[in-house]
Structure formats: structure tokens, C-alpha cells
Amino acid sequence: MFIRTVFAALIAVAGSAAVALDDPQTVLQDPMGSGMWNYHQKGLLGDPADIRFDDRVVLRAPDSAEDSLNVPLLVDATAIPDVKRIVISADYGPIPHILTYYPEQAEPKLALRFKIDQATAIRASVETQSGSWHIGSTYIDAAGGGCTAPANAYASDDWEEKLGEVHGRLWSASGRARLVVDHPMDTGLADGIPVFIIQDLSLQTEDGTPLARLELHEPVNEDPAFTFYFDAGALPASVKVMGRDNNGNRIRGVLSEGELN
Amino acid sequence: MLTRRTTLGLLASLPLAPRAFAQARLSYDLTAKPLADGIWMVEGATEYFSMENGGAIVNVTLMKGDSGLILFDTGSSRRYGEALASLARSLDIRGISAVVNTHHHPDHFFGNQIFADRPIHALGGTRQAALDEGEAFADNMYRLLGDWMRGTEVVPPSDVIAGGELALDGRDFLALPLGGHTGADLALMDRRTGTLVAGDLVFYNRAPTTPSADIPRWQQALEALQAEKPALVIPGHGPADPTGASITQTRDYLGWLDGTLRAGARSGLDMVELMETPLPDRFAGMGAQPQEYQRSVAHLFPGIEREELPRGN
Ligand SMILES: [Zn+2]
């Protein structure tokens, strides 16, 4: 009798522990129904209590990825006030976290490209300064394989010379800063090729004041490309690009409203 | 790795799969439209690949030779090749005598295996690209077309031809070795009728596709085709054209596409913003729009942007 009681009690404890492990403290109804969101809500966002899906966070992307190595995505959270950061992720993929954007002086809006491994829900999780989370979603179909393919860079001989090359420009009247940085962005998932990625990338004024900042992860595309959005006329005449990869290579560049090629 | 193709193979071996039904449903209804003396065209839908069209989106040309019919492009699947072979026998009891592949895109050569015992002619660059990229194309075609692709194997062209005067099964052609739609695009002018088999260098009322495109080279190729003053143009996709308007339209579209992407790069636009740009009226009504334009943004914009943006270090 005694033994059975203890056994039942153990099951009860294990049972409630399992519930606590699986479910986030605030359980949401996922509009994408992907089956993975609860898990990412805890693992990626740290299981916040104040969280909801919010149509004001808009994700613009093609329905289907034509090139699984270069999927374009435009995240627009300008309808959310006081944005602190935006976590962009894919529900299904060997590495879900694509990047985190800290808009600082910029608008909470960002255009990027990333590698997709299979059809998946894509999320932009927006945290405000007061700690409330607002999640936007879209779904992208894909043939797959984008994360596990080796970088194209190694097909050419001069990738090492081009490493860290910055191409870009400012458009002050429309408040845009666009840049492309040459980098293989190796995920570490292709056979025999270790992880080699840019980890930090930021825009700064000439005196070092941060304007916008990115933390990049493996799924960001080879030769990462971003558009940052500012209020019209708010950009200074020139902006520094500062970055670093996981091998300690520094990225340095300057964007201005200069001559186009 | 478990690909879509192996999955399909596994499904095919299940005893309970309703195969008879699927096979009855998935059949190509091909008709040969007479165009000129001893020339027929099988006209494809001006659409993208779908389960509804089974990939029958390409134009195929048949011309009378001395010992049978010369076939220009073989369609998207084994089953399509079989349908072509029986259509050919209804026009000429001797069937197909020789085959040409205009280029290495899968809708143009995936019916090759049905004709593997006959000479299959193509440019050297086409043969190499079919060897290099054929399997990846096959994976994607199985994904898009599923059971329509059953049994399809990649059979690259066997006989490499060069440019200039060329006789195929006793019929005289001018072979034009060009490129731009892909790395190697073959156009053939029939000497007897002035009919130009243009392959995918020319599209008509169907948006041009650009996954392997080099637009300046493509424009040069179109100029070369125009200079031949063909009596009739058979485009790779879209209706046959006796006026040459198909070449003009393809040039106009490619010029607009390149200009639009470059102007976008020079204004700091991102790919998504360009994909959302509405098409001008004269291109909006083309088959497979706006999807094909959006695919072209994905194919071409990263390279164009790199050329247009100034260096920042
Ligand atoms: Zn083609």
C-alpha cells in the first residue's frame, strides 16, 4: 500500500513538472499553427509573461523561396511604440534564430535576406522598452537545403580578398541606409566547414553614437544585405559601419550619399 | 537523404496506392498544329509548372526529315516524351528520326529518355549544363509536379553540334549558337521555309524566365535573331509569330526588367519592395505574371545591386 502511494505521488509530481517544462507561462493561439511556437517562445524569447500575436507587426516576403540561399524579408514594426529589439526567427530549421535587431535611432523596420532550409513559419518578435512582446508571422514555402549548402564564395578564388568589403549608400531624403557586406556566413552545417559568420554589425555616427545595431546568426545569407529606415532627413552626411565576425575579423566602412556607380 | 523523389518511389511501391486512377488522370492531351509545309507545333500553356498542367508549358516543334520527323525539344517528363512519340507516329508512321535540345532547362529536355536510341543534338554548353544541373532540376520538378514525373530520368543530349550550316535527317538548317537565356541557347533557322525555332531566347505573351540569364548577352542574341529576318518565329513559350513581334516584345521586357532592377538598386530599394512594384500594363497581362517577374527579382537583383552600389570601404 505504502509503496503504491509513493509511486502515485511520484507520477503526479513528474506529471506536473512535464506540463511546466512544455508550456510557456502564457500560452498563445498560434495563427500559423506550426506546432513549434511554444518551444521558441520559451527558448528564443525567455518565456515572457506579457506576450501576444499582434497584426501590427508586418512581415513582407514572397510566398515561396525562389532561391533558398537568398530569401528576402521585410519586417515592419513601425506601428508598435517604443521598440527595444526585434528577434527574427524561423520555426523550422536547424538554427531557428536568424538575427536580433536593435533599432536605436532608426525606425523599427528592417529589410534582410536569409537562408531557408524548408517550408516554415517566419516570426518577428518585437519587445518594447517596457518588456511587452508583440509577435508577427508569415509563412514561406521552400524547396529546402539553404542552411546545409556550402557558401558559394568558395567557388571563386578571391573570396578572402573580398572578405569584409562593404557596398552601400545613404538616401537622406527617403531616410534609407542600405549595405551589403561580403562574407561567406558559413553555418557550420555543411561537411567539414566550420561556423564562420559576422556576429555584430552596427551603424554609428562619426563620433561613435550608435544609430542601429544587429546581432547576426548563422541563417543570415551569404554577403548579408540590409536596408535600415530612418526619419526622412534624419541621417547625418556620413555613417560608419562597424562589425566583427567570430574569427575576430573587423568590418569597417563608411556610407554616404555619394556618387552611384 | 530522403528526397521528394525517393519518397515518391516509396509511395509508388505501396500496394494500396490508387495507381490506375492516377495514371488515367495524369495524361497529356497533345495536339500538333500545322504551321507551314511539313512543320507542326505542340503549343504549351503560357503558365508556370503546376499539378494541373503537368509541366506541359513548353512549345515543341516537329519537322519532316528524310526518314521521319525531327523533334525540337522533348518536354518536361518521361510521360510527356511518350505522348510526343505517339503523336509523331500519327503524323508519320516512322516516328521521330532525330532530336534537338535548344537548351538545358528541364521543360525542354526531360522527355529525352524516350528518344535515347536516336541522336539527340545540342550545343556543347547545353550538354555540360544538363550533366551539371540536371539532377537538381529533377529534384525540383518532382517537387512541383509529383506523379507526373514518375519514371523520369535525366538523359543529357548525346551529339554536340556547332554553329553554321547543318543538315539534320536531310533537312537544311542554319544553326545559331547563342546564349543569354542560359549559358548556351541554340536557335535553328529552317532553310526551306524561313521558320526560326528560337527556343527560350524568345517568349511571346508569356513572361521570360531568368534563372540562368545574362541579360546583355540575351539582348545581343535577340539582335542576331532579328537580323536573320525569319518568316515565322516559334518561341519557346507562347504562340507562333509571323511578324517578329515576339522578338521585339522579349527585347522590350528584358530592357524594362534590367532598367527597373537597376533603378531600384540606385534608390536603395530592397528585393521585397521591388517584388511588390506593379508591372506596366503592357507586361501585366503576359502569362505567368507577376510570379515570373518576382522570380526574376530573386535571380537578378543581388548581382545587379552589387554592380550599382558604391564601395563603402
Ligand atoms: Zn528555358
Please give a structural write-up.
The complex is a heterodimer of chains A (261) and B (313). Chain A is 12% helix and 36% strand. With 261 residues, chain A is mainly β. Chain A has one domain (47-256): Sandwich (Immunoglobulin-like). Mean pLDDT of chain A is 88; it is low at 1-20. Chain B has 313 residues and is of the alpha/beta class. Chain B has 10 helices and 12 strands. In chain B, strand 3 (60-64) and strand 4 (69-72) form a beta hairpin. In chain B, helix 6 runs antiparallel to helix 7 (245-266) and helix 7 (245-266) packs across helix 10. Residues 1-24 of chain B have low confidence and may be disordered. The structure holds zinc ion. Zinc ion (ZN) binds next to loops of chain B.
Give a short overview:
Helix content of chain A is 12%, strand content 36%. Chain A has 261 residues and is mostly beta strands.
Query: Quick one: how many beta strands of chain A?
Result: 15
The CATH homologous superfamily of the domain at 31-243 in chain B is termed Ribonuclease Z/Hydroxyacylglutathione hydrolase-like
Number of helices of chain A: 3
Largest interface in this structure? A-B, 37 and 27 residues
Integer average pLDDT of chain B? 91
Which stretches of chain B of 5+ consecutive residues score pLDDT under 50?
1-24
Largest pleated sheet of chain A: 9 strands, mixed
Summing up helix and strand content along with how strands pair, one would put the structural category of chain B as alpha/beta
Descriptive terms for the model:
heterodimer, A: 261 residues, mainly beta, Immunoglobulin-like, 9-stranded mixed sheet, 6-stranded antiparallel sheet, 36% strand, B: 313 residues, alpha/beta, Metallo-beta-lactamase, Chain A, 7-stranded mixed sheet, 5-stranded mixed sheet, 12 strands, binds zinc ion
Map the helices and strands.
The complex is a heterodimer of chains A (261) and B (313).
Chain A: H1 2-22, H2 37-43, E1 51-53, E2 58-60, E3 71-76, E4 83-90, E5 97-102, E6 109-114, E7 120-128, E8 133-140, H3 159-162, E9 166-171, E10 176-181, E11 198-204, E12 210-216, E13 225-229, E14 238-245, E15 250-256
Parallel strand pairs in A: 1-8
Antiparallel strand pairs in A: 2-3, 3-6, 4-5, 4-7, 5-12, 6-13, 7-8, 9-10, 10-13, 11-12, 11-14, 14-15
Chain B: H1 4-12, H2 19-25, E1 33-36, E2 39-42, E3 60-64, E4 69-72, H3 78-91, E5 96-100, H4 106-109, E6 120-122, H5 124-145, E7 159-160, E8 164-168, E9 171-178, E10 185-190, E11 195-203, H6 215-227, E12 232-237, H7 245-266, H8 271-275, H9 281-284, H10 291-308
Parallel strand pairs in B: 4-5, 5-6, 6-7, 11-12
Antiparallel strand pairs in B: 1-2, 2-3, 3-4, 8-9, 9-10, 10-11
Helix pairs in contact in B: 6-7, 7-10
Bound molecules: zinc ion.
